[in-house]
Amino acid sequence: MVGKGNKPSMLASTPGLAPQPQVTFSDDNGRVTAVLPTGESVEVLLYGATVISWKDKNGDEKLWLSKAAKLDGSKAVRGGIPLVFPVFGTAPDHEQTSKLPQHGFARTSRWEFLGKSTSESTPASSTAADLSVKLDFGLSSAGLDSDAKSKWPYAFNLIYSVTLGRESLTTSLVVSNDDDKPFDVQVLLHTYLRVKDISSVSITGLGSATYIDKVGGVSPPQTQSASELTISGEVDRVYTPKDGASPTEVVPVTVVEGGKTKFTVVRDNLSNVVVWNPWVDKANGLGDFEPKDGYKNMLCIEPGSVSGWQTLEAGDAFEGAQTISFSY
Ligand SMILES: O=P(O)(O)OC[C@H]1O[C@H](O)[C@H](O)[C@@H](O)[C@@H]1O
């Protein structure tokens, strides 16, 4: 394993050259943390490979994390970016995943930290190179607890990569079928974005998308006519945006707050976006959701592949990713 140890370590110094700015890194107590020389940071729990913090250079947190979230491995984390795999919600009628708990086992399994790497890029607007750091995590059937293994007895391998840039975070999941038979999966990056005040937020990029409304039962597919979505009550929708045929024609989802773009979410090979806000009653009903009025400060924009199943033949792999960007 790369970079194991309890003390912070440094990356990216090249022998013989002037010292380069370095990424500070620690892998301690079930958490992996990386900080760019310019101050941006990310923190990932090995439990669920859950991103629990993403901060900009000023230390402003970009993700919402419940004050009552369990970070001790006793329950899926309420906030940050839990990983949903291999089933979204529950699927009592889908034989392969019917025994699994809500949202599967990836978010409640202990992942392995596989290593870190840095890379440099020079943005068009600057001559100075920016560093980014990528953290890789793995989970395979061999690493599952016996309960999850008995409920989903397939040989698989997952690699989850979390890449921190100056003004972006990319999370990417690769699922491989290591079995000798096919299996079906759903994948979702259940991202809790932090906002200042949900009443001044609008979401663009979902106009003319079809969606299924899950509030009060699953609705037949509908089409969103408004170009902007605002939130003034419980929202739980599975959208299928109208992307073009090529990967470059993906329609980004933007979160605008007070007239300013706060986040831009670009999906790679993920055809759905779940939009979720529990609002008053649901938040009250969730024991680990604190403060109870925290629904005013969060919005889940969850890229995924969940409206059908990805069937992976023996030896096949599926990869999906999101990049969340912000500007100051
Ligand atoms: O409470 P959880 O299992 O974490 O699920 C939280 C939420 O996840 C997704 O956004 C689903 O669309 C919601 O229906 C669900 O309530």
UniProtKB/TrEMBL annotation:
Q: Which reaction does it catalyse?
A: alpha-D-glucose 6-phosphate = beta-D-glucose 6-phosphate
EC number of the protein: 5.1.3.15
Which SUPFAM superfamilies does the entry link to? Answer: Galactose mutarotase-like
Query: Does the record bear Ligase in its keywords?
Result: no
GO MF, one term, reads: carbohydrate binding
Q: Where is this region: Disordered?
A: 1-25
Q: Does the keyword Isomerase apply?
A: yes
Question: What Pfam families does the database record attribute to this sequence?
Answer: Aldose_epim
Q: Quote the catalytic residue positions.
A: H190, E302
One GO biological process this protein is involved in is: carbohydrate metabolic process
User: Which keywords fit this entry according to its UniProt record?
Assistant: Isomerase
**Where do the annotations place substrate binding?**
R78, Q102, R107
InterPro entries the record matches = Aldose_1/G6P_1-epimerase, G6P_1-epimerase, Gal_mutarotase_sf_dom, GH-type_carb-bd
A cellular component term from Gene Ontology for this protein is:
cytoplasm
Provide the family line. Answer: Belongs to the glucose-6-phosphate 1-epimerase family.
| Physiological role | Catalyzes the interconversion between the alpha and beta anomers from at least three hexose 6-phosphate sugars (Glc6P, Gal6P, and Man6P).
Q: What is this protein called?
A: Glucose-6-phosphate 1-epimerase
